[in-house]
Amino acid sequence: MGRRLATAVHVQHPTSREWIVLEPGDEPDDDLVAEITNPGAWEDDEPSPGLVESEPDEPKMDEPKPFGFTAPPEPEPEPEAEPTAPAPRRRRKAADADE
């Protein structure tokens, strides 16, 4: 039994040079397998039943925090309001001052 694809891939056939789209779950021929260079395109080998890992609910203190889209964003502290200076006083025009 050959390896199965986990994602869709576009490969160029080695002899005809035609572009082929392989779908997830396909088991391509050996000549096409050599053309697929991304290791993430393949399904993982079936783990043995005794080695199934469970994910921890929360990270431990000594573990680094997850990054990217795996963790909810932490709220940013609200910036302190900057003091605003009062508007500069404008000089009155001589015509306004006479009134």
Plain-language structure description:
- This protein is largely without helices or strands.
- The protein has two helices and two strands.
- The chain has helices at 30-33, 94-98, and strands at 9-12, 19-22.
- It has a two-stranded antiparallel sheet.
- The longest helix has 5 residues, at 94-98.
- It starts with 8 loop residues before the first strand and ends with a helix.
- The mean pLDDT is 75.
Short description:
With 99 residues, this protein is low in regular secondary structure. Helices cover 9% and strands 8% of the residues.
List strands and helices in order, with pairings.
Elements: E1 9-12, E2 19-22, H1 30-33, H2 94-98
Antiparallel strand pairs: 1-2
Uncertain segments of ≥5 residues (pLDDT<50)?
A: none
| Rg from alpha-carbon coordinates | 32 Å
- Annotation, overall tally of beta strands: 2
Strand order of the largest sheet: 1-2
Order of helices and strands: EEHH
Largest sheet: 2 strands, antiparallel
